[in-house]
Automatic annotation (TrEMBL):
<keyword id="KW-0238">DNA-binding</keyword>
<keyword id="KW-0804">Transcription</keyword>
<dbReference type="InterPro" id="IPR003593">
    <property type="entry name" value="AAA+_ATPase"/>
</dbReference>
<dbReference type="InterPro" id="IPR025944">
    <property type="entry name" value="Sigma_54_int_dom_CS"/>
</dbReference>
<keyword id="KW-0547">Nucleotide-binding</keyword>
<keyword id="KW-0805">Transcription regulation</keyword>
<dbReference type="GO" id="GO:0005524">
    <property type="term" value="F:ATP binding"/>
</dbReference>
<feature type="domain" description="Sigma-54 factor interaction">
    <location>
        <begin position="125"/>
        <end position="352"/>
    </location>
</feature>
<protein>
    <submittedName>
        <fullName>Transcriptional regulator with GAF, ATPase, and Fis domain</fullName>
    </submittedName>
</protein>
<dbReference type="InterPro" id="IPR002078">
    <property type="entry name" value="Sigma_54_int"/>
</dbReference>
<dbReference type="InterPro" id="IPR027417">
    <property type="entry name" value="P-loop_NTPase"/>
</dbReference>
<dbReference type="GO" id="GO:0003677">
    <property type="term" value="F:DNA binding"/>
</dbReference>
<dbReference type="GO" id="GO:0006355">
    <property type="term" value="P:regulation of DNA-templated transcription"/>
</dbReference>
<dbReference type="InterPro" id="IPR025943">
    <property type="entry name" value="Sigma_54_int_dom_ATP-bd_2"/>
</dbReference>
<dbReference type="InterPro" id="IPR058031">
    <property type="entry name" value="AAA_lid_NorR"/>
</dbReference>
<dbReference type="Pfam" id="PF25601">
    <property type="entry name" value="AAA_lid_14"/>
</dbReference>
<keyword id="KW-0067">ATP-binding</keyword>
Length: 448
């Protein structure tokens, strides 16, 4: 992690950082091109100017930290101009406390950076687009340093459960414990209490044995409530206590039990609007949103599509087929209302269809992605030609063979289109005699 300290007291801060074991480059002067983190100390009225400079030079995703003391915060009015997700305000009562705070923040950033660079993360959560990287950075922070409940919001199929599992796996206190998933859309009104809290023997007809519910099973780990926005109001009320107190009663039992779990929830609904309309309890909303992470839709990170396609092909377990450039162009341009899940299904279907050929060509796309998307996707003739040449190379043809084949096809097509050799020759910019010779496989001499 390369850090630039654009800071009145930069040398002292650099010394503290080195003492805290920050191993990477720390610069106290210089242009700072390519620096990942820039720290500016507010106070001398230079913050806005410094921000303007650094925000132009920061790589994506970078971090721009403004340090303020109680004395300088009002003067810098940072919140007015900084772009969300990049700038970070660190405040402290005085200069010494600010120094300590900044050191802590940078040490944490370095740890997050190491997580973001880890191979295991990229193998699971594929994508390098700025919006996805920012999402992973927040998830890493919530998982590694956060303790409270976290709500993941985003469209269906965009990776909320995958992110919830990352929060669990990054949490040092929970990762060795269970990760228990409850899909709230499948909780029936009659059995939901038992599924969440368990039941005593004989609590209801067919309750032949006592049983633990999801809350008990999640003890020591994470309880993941998927689609929490679908929970009925009475169940929302019962959840409140267990979330706050971590105590619950089994159905048909009177004694309180304890379960120590971390709560993560996901929804594709606008829960704030549901709170406004009375569909979701406001008190529950505030208890599940200590952290909120928005998972971006695939449309917001189209540049990640090629890597995701390769990732899903590799999951097939067989020899990974080669993809024609125009196939990738179409996959990249198509719409996926079902987000990454839909892309995954398309890729796996294509791979099934082409199994054994080793190459995914446009033929395997028919019926795979919605016609609307296919027809909207412009395919240039260069892409089509590139795809054909790639196929010929795959078939082992050399330059001469490819040239001859292309030429004879061009002659054939021009004649078909124009209906006569003379007009076809005109179209191709050669004389009719030259065309006849070419058709007979002889090279015309100059001037023919
Ligand atoms: N960045 C990613 N890298 C690799 N696979 C991904 C990524 N994002 C999503 N997936 C895969 O896409 C599929 C859907 O993801 P997931 O189930 O996490 O979505 P979701 O938002 O929870 O969906 P829903 O709202 O329907 O519950 C899964 O197979 C998941 O592994």
């Amino acid at each position: 992690m390369r850090v630039v300290l654009d800071h009145e007291d930069a040398e002292r801060l650099a010394l503290s950082l080195r003492q805290h074991g920050l191993p990477d480059e720390i610069e106290t002067s210089g242009a700072g091109e390519g620096a990942l983190v820039v720290v500016v100390l507010a106070g001398s009225g230079t913050v806005a100017a410094a921000a303007e400079h650094w925000l132009r030079h920061l790589p994506h995703p970078g971090a721009f930290i403004v340090g303020c003391t109680a004395r300088t915060r009002a003067a810098c009015q940072c919140e007015d101009w900084w772009p969300e997700g990049i700038c970070d305000l660190v405040t402290a009562p005085d200069d010494d406390a600010l120094q300590t705070e900044l050191v802590m923040r940078l040490v944490r950033l370095a740890e997050l950076e190491a997580i973001l660079d880890a191979d295991w993360l990229h193998e699971r959560a594929v994508g390098t687009s700025p919006v996805w990287r920012r999402t992973l950075q927040l998830v890493a922070e919530v998982g590694r340093f956060g303790h409270g409940a976290c709500l993941l919001q985003g469209e269906s199929g965009c990776g909320k459960e995958l992110l919830a599992r990352l929060v669990h796996d990054l949490d040092p206190a929970r990762r060795r414990g269970p990760f228990v998933v409850v899909d709230c859309t499948t909780l029936s009104p009659e059995l939901s209490g038992s599924e969440l809290f368990g039941h005593a023997r004989g609590a209801f007809t067919h309750a032949l044995n006592a049983r633990d519910g999801a809350v008990a099973l999640a003890d020591g780990g994470t309880l993941f409530l998927d689609e929490i926005g679908e929970l009925e109001l009475p169940l929302q009320a019962r959840l409140l206590r267990v979330i706050q107190e971590h105590t619950y009663k089994r159905v048909g039992e009177d004694n309180w039990r304890q379960s120590d779990f971390r709560l993560t929830c996901a929804t594709n609904r606008n829960l704030e609007a549901d709170v406004q309309s009375g569909r979701f309890r406001g008190d529950l909303f505030f208890r599940i949103t200590q952290w909120t992470v928005r998972a971006p839709s695939l449309a917001e990170r189209r540049e990640d599509i090629p890597a995701l396609v390769q990732h899903f092909l590799a999951q097939g377990g067989q020899r990974v087929p080669q993809i024609m450039p125009e196939v990738m162009a179409r996959l990249k341009a198509a719409d996926y209302p079902g987000n990454v899940r839909e892309l995954r299904n398309v890729v796996l279907r294509m791979a099934d269809r082409q199994r054994g050929f080793g190459v995914l060509s446009t033929g395997c796309l028919q019926g795979m992605i919605p016609t609307r998307a296919l027809t909207q996707t412009p395919i240039t003739w260069e892409q089509t030609l590139a795809s054909a040449v790639e196929g010929a190379l795959d078939a082992g043809m050399g330059l001469k063979g490819i040239g001859q084949l292309a030429e004879s096809m061009a002659v054939q097509m021009a004649e078909q289109r124009m209906g006569s050799t003379t007009r076809a020759a005109e179209l191709l910019g050669v004389t009719p005699r030259a065309l006849q010779l070419r058709r007979r496989g002889r090279q015309p001499e100059a001037g023919q």
